[in-house]
Specification:
The complex is a heterodimer of chains A (812) and B (234). Chain A is of the alpha+beta class. Chain A is 60% helix and 16% strand. Chain B has a single domain, classed as Rossmann fold (3-Layer(aba) Sandwich), CATH 3.40.50. Classes of the chains: A alpha+beta (812), B alpha/beta (234). At the A-B interface, α13, α15, α25 and α29 of A face α2 and α3 of B. The structure holds adenosine-5'-diphosphate and magnesium ion.
């Protein structure tokens, strides 16, 4: 214990600024992980419908693609089983000043008034409630308050059907089995009564479905959040290496005095553990705070890409806190193990000088480089692996290996830089000394180069991935959005929600002068093999004539589209095809209405608006099975020579009061890109943190280098160096370090972005992204990182020039 | 740079202590390290500062080399009080007129022997620094070790490199703090001979702190310190 105090704690305290920087970088890493975890939980964990708690214990739910036919309620009620069947409608209502809340249609026996949950009633003004449902504003009188958790509204089922113009259709039927009745018997009886295409699920199945749908998204977010921790691990490695290096003499003496090898190992592991746990604790607190901000970002993404997200309060559970701490401790121990083992190998009373020790490190670089090449080959092989259980394990393993490749190549890069500068004959002394000292403490400089390079690579690769994706989407939008005007129900948009257009809208559009064609689209969410996708139907002949859908290479667009009308044929989006392993020519069995319909896949088209996937059929096919399916949006093609603004204006006038919103092509495109950018906001936030951690690391490492070499700086002053020369030396050293890191980082970043785009994204989300590296952005970011590295050296440089040469030379 | 400071030409490298006292503040408690020390060292002579460990030798040398400044009294180098010099003038003084030799050699581990010797010349932007450095290595008999790194040299060799470095810019004042403290007798003798030669051949003013009798033997003047006071001169 005294040993721990004298050899570890006291030095940690003496270098408290460095200690603080190290702890801070671990804390940031952990904070990000905790924040992302908590925020994802809050943003995606609460799909549990409030209804399930409201209606008490529901045993089954009956669902059908295209809606459950109301007639079945009577048939089910007549079954000789002791169970209750409750019809349910579920939609969204938007209240000014509050936002979007669920609106349930329940069986109230004809009362038109509104029930409000207790939590919501507190936020509502007294009197009538005005809410927008399916694009139209309605005013409801309040009937009473419901004592159930969460914020929601409820009205009578008939009123809900009227609001949504879905007469005769239910979203689901909740089944409650009476006590004493056998649930299996009830299920059997239901199954025997209902058409085979109807789904009978346990409650919570939809929640599970949601979680499954979000699995890839959450997983990728989580992996991204671990980036900062990897950078933090490098910093702990660096700190412990410095610690061991500085105390080689003391360790030797200790060993001579009888301390065992294990004791020495544990001494340094204990140091890492302390740093890790301190960082972990701070990180937990900070993560809890950050989570509140991240929830909104993540909820936005989930809303845009998947399904309605209603964030729950952020809650840090004991198990999550524990996990965060254990992660911090484990990372600290793992990254300290190498240097601590090095300490263990120090021979008793070893008097090996630092110079000699570093000389050994210098001799090891060719071996490290060879190792790096081997790892690179392994990474390449691993990246080709198929996904495991839907996760791109191979891609991530390859990414991690690539980081290792860079770390191992870093010493060689430093040596190469030193050689290059040596051959530059007319080099300034400051440059020579800087390059020499980088190579001189090779073991440590290469760690910091690797850490910085990793952070830069993460930034570069994610930026490249997002920019490529954005460019791909933008190009796709240009091709996809061929119509002049788009009409959809007014109000906020959520993925997976398809509120209906008023029934008279299509006819109004078609009769407006200047309109050449109207493609009415009917979309609905459907359940397919335990996941969700969108079933859509349009006028395929119009799509063929006016549209520009792009199909996978080798598929004949015209022939495919011609083959659809009047037949049970479909085209599917690329993510759908990838997720379910579908190829052109396959037959999908899709439950539609009360039939299981066999659809032959005619082709696979590119689509980037949702990773959930689309199955598209001609409208004739859909209406055959679901005659009353409402239109959900429409694309309007104008006649040649028509005045676009004039027609838009005319349509807007004619649609007044029908709750439809009309947008020209460019606005839709702009909105789509805005949604895209919002979706990736969280990604950028994570990037920023990784970079900050790297900057902390640079400052930390440079400070360590300065403190470690203070005797040299003191000596230089004795030899006639001015303060400016000493400062220049350190800044040049930082600049060299930054340049090396930028070079390596760019190389690694290139590799990682290829992995992200062609392996991870492809396997997780199923879309093909074209490679479009954002040159200008990357150059600017690199310059910024480089400048920040040099700036980070200002403080260490100040420390170096303020050292008292007499004192540092006296220390011996 | 500030190399054009005007110095008193004749008494070029004479060092003079006039009633110098030095007090350190050790956690609020003032500790007097030197008391009213007066002393002169002339060009071409070797002055040995003797005394036990802690008697104030290093402090005295730092004052003489303008690395530190007196609390009372004044230290004159070439006729100018060190306390009156600006930071630029001090840097220029060290670059052109003073060479330091330390007990623990203080070579930069990442530089070769030659580069170490060249270092002060480069810091001062002296032309032909490489040739001069090679020449100085020749003086100390280590031309063949020019490309060696410090950890490849013996203690005596390292100290000889350090002396070559101290003499690189032909300083008029050479300050050596226990230069033989870490050396065996033979290496120590070599180092002492080099210091003696720098006084004899180049007319340098040499100040050596030591507690070895051998070192005292090569000196022209011996000054003994005890508790920061001069107790004996010979
Ligand atoms: N910066 C300082 N602060 C306080 N005391 C100091 C400082 N430098 C030296 N001393 C003290 O001054 C005395 C003389 O030190 P020094 O000149 O190094 O002696 P010597 O070189 O003869 O061993 C010692 O007692 C030492 O502890
Ligand atoms: Mg001393």
């Amino acid at each position: 214990m005294t040993l721990l105090y004298r050899l570890i704690l006291r030095p940690l305290w003496r270098d408290r600024l460095r200690t603080a920087l190290t702890i801070l970088s671990v804390a940031l890493g952990i904070a990000v992980i905790v924040a992302i975890d908590l925020a994802s939980d809050a943003a995606t964990g609460s799909f549990q419908s409030s209804m399930e708690t409201l209606t008490g214990k529901t045993d089954f739910q009956i669902l059908a693609n295209g809606g459950v036919d109301e007639r079945w309620i009577g048939r089910l009620d007549g079954l000789p089983v002791d169970a209750h069947f409750a019809p349910v409608m579920e939609t969204e209502a938007t209240i000014a000043g509050i936002g979007s809340v669920p609106l349930y249609g329940l069986d109230f026996l004809g009362d038109e008034r509104l029930l409000v949950s207790r939590a919501l009633v507190r936020r509502l003004a007294a009197g009538a409630v005005t809410a927008t449902v399916a694009g139209r504003r309605h005013t409801f009188t309040k009937r009473g308050t419901l004592d159930a958790p969460g914020e929601f509204l409820a009205i009578d089922i008939a009123a809900a059907q009227h609001l949504l113009e879905r007469y005769g259709k239910l979203d689901r039927i909740d089944v409650t089995v009476s006590p004493g009745e056998d649930a299996a018997r009830v299920e059997q009886a239901i199954r025997a009564t209902l058409p085979p295409s109807y789904l009978i699920e346990k409650p919570g199945a939809r929640n599970q479905e949601n979680q499954r749908m979000l699995r890839a998204f959450r997983w990728n977010l989580r992996v991204l959040s671990y980036i900062s921790l990897i950078v933090g691990a490098f910093l702990i490695y660096n700190t412990i290496s410095v610690s061991v290096l500085r105390r080689r003499g003391e360790i030797g003496v200790l060993r001579a005095l009888g301390a065992g090898r294990g004791a020495v190992l544990w001494l340094f592991l204990a140091e890492a553990l302390m740093l890790g746990i301190a960082g972990g604790l701070i990180g937990l607190a900070a993560g809890r705070l950050l989570a509140a901000g991240a929830v909104r970002l993540i909820a936005g993404t989930v809303n845009a890409l998947y399904t309605t997200s209603r964030p729950a309060p952020v809650a840090l559970t004991w198990s999550e806190a524990w996990l965060g701490l254990v992660t911090a401790a484990a990372v600290a121990l793992a990254s300290a193990f190498g240097p601590a083992r090095g300490a263990m190998e120090v021979a008793p009373a070893e008097a090996m000088s630092r110079g000699a020790h570093e000389h050994h490190a210098r001799l090891h670089w060719p071996r490290a480089l060879a190792f790096s090449a081997v790892l690179a080959a392994v990474a390449l092989a691993v990246s080709r692996a198929a996904p495991i259980g839907g996760y791109p394990i191979g891609g991530y393993a390859a990414a991690l290996l690539a980081v290792g490749v860079t770390a191992l190549a870093a010493p060689a890069a430093v040596v190469a830089a030193n050689r290059l500068t040596r051959s530059a004959v007319h080099m300034r002394l400051e440059g020579l000394l800087a390059a020499r000292s980088l190579a001189g403490s090779l073991g440590r400089t290469s760690v910091i180069v690797a850490a910085l390079a990793t952070a830069i690579a993460m930034m570069a690769s994610v930026a490249t991935m997002v920019a490529s994706f954005r460019e791909t989407v933008a190009l796709w939008l240009d091709v996809q959005l061929r119509a002049d005007l788009y009409v959809r129900p007014a109000g906020p948009q959520t993925a997976g929600e398809y509120p209906p257009l008023a029934p008279q809208v299509p006819a109004i559009l078609e009769s407006t002068p200047g309109v050449a064609a109207v493609d009415v689209f009917r979309a609905s969410e459907f359940h397919y093999r335990g996941e969700r996708a969108t079933l859509g139907a349009g006028n395929i002949e119009i799509v063929r004539r006016y549209g520009r859908l792009r199909f996978l290479p080798g598929e004949d667009r015209d022939a495919i589209l011609r083959s659809l009308p009047g037949r049970d044929r479909a085209i599917v989006s690329e993510p759908f095809a990838n997720k379910f392993g579908v190829r052109a020519g396959d037959v999908l069995t899709v439950p539609i209405g009360d039939r299981n319909v066999a659809l032959r896949v005619a082709g696979i088209y590119y689509e980037y608006s949702s990773s959930q996937g689309y199955v598209i059929v001609d409208q004739s096919t859909l209406l055959k099975y679901l005659p009353n399916q409402p239109a959900t949006n429409a694309a309007v093609y104008l006649a040649g020579g028509a005045n676009a603004d004039g027609v838009e204006h005319a349509i807007q006038l004619r649609l007044t009061g029908l709750g439809a919103s009309v947008a020209p092509n460019r606005e839709l495109r702009r909105n789509a890109l805005a949604i895209f950018d919002r979706t990736f906001a969280i990604t950028w936030a994570l990037e920023a943190v990784a970079i900050i951690v790297a900057m902390l690391g640079a400052a930390n490492a440079l400070l360590a280098l300065v403190l470690d070499r203070r005797r040299e700086f003191g000596l230089l002053r004795y030899l006639g160096a001015s303060a400016a020369q000493v400062r220049a030396m350190i800044l040049v050293e930082a600049a060299l370090l930054g340049s090396l890191a930028a070079l390596l980082g760019l190389a690694l970043g290139g590799a990682l972005s290829l992995l992200l785009i062609f392996v991870v994204n492809k396997q997780s989300f199923g879309w093909t992204i074209q490679f479009h590296p954002p040159g200008g952005l990357l150059a600017a970011a690199l310059l910024l990182v480089w400048c920040t590295t040099v700036l980070a050296a200002l403080y260490p440089a100040r420390v170096a020039t303020r050292l008292n040469p007499i004192e540092v030379i006296r220390e011996e | 740079m500030g190399d054009s400071v005007e110095w008193e030409e004749m008494a070029s490298s004479r060092v003079e202590f006039r009633g110098v006292s030095k007090t350190y503040r050790n956690g609020g408690q003032p500790v007097a390290v030197l008391h009213e020390v007066s002393l002169g060292a002339a060009p071409g002579t070797v002055t040995a500062i003797l005394g036990r460990s802690g008697s104030g030798k290093t402090t005295l040398l730092n004052l003489a080399g303008a690395m530190d400044f007196p609390t009372a009294g004044e230290v004159l180098i070439a006729g100018r009080a060190t306390s009156a010099l600006s930071a630029r003038e001090l840097t220029a003084l060290r670059r052109t007129r003073i060479g330091f030799v330390f007990q623990f050699f203080q070579l930069l581990p990442t530089l070769t022997a030659l580069e170490n010797v060249e270092l002060p010349l480069q810091l001062a932007h002296t032309p032909k620094s490489r040739e001069t450095a090679l020449d100085r290595l020749g003086w100390v008999g280590l031309e063949d070790k020019a490309g060696s790194f410090p950890y490849q040299l013996s203690g005596g060799q390292m100290q000889r490199v350090a002396i070559a470095r101290a003499l690189a810019h032909s300083p008029e004042l050479v300050i050596a703090d226990e230069p033989t403290g870490n050396l065996d007798d033979a290496s120590g003798a070599q180092v002492l001979a080099l210091l003696r030669a720098s006084a004899d051949r180049f007319g340098a003013t040499v100040l050596v702190a030591t507690h070895s009798a051998e070192a005292a033997a090569i000196a022209d003047v011996r000054v003994r310190l005890r508790d920061g006071r001069i107790v004996e001169r010979a």
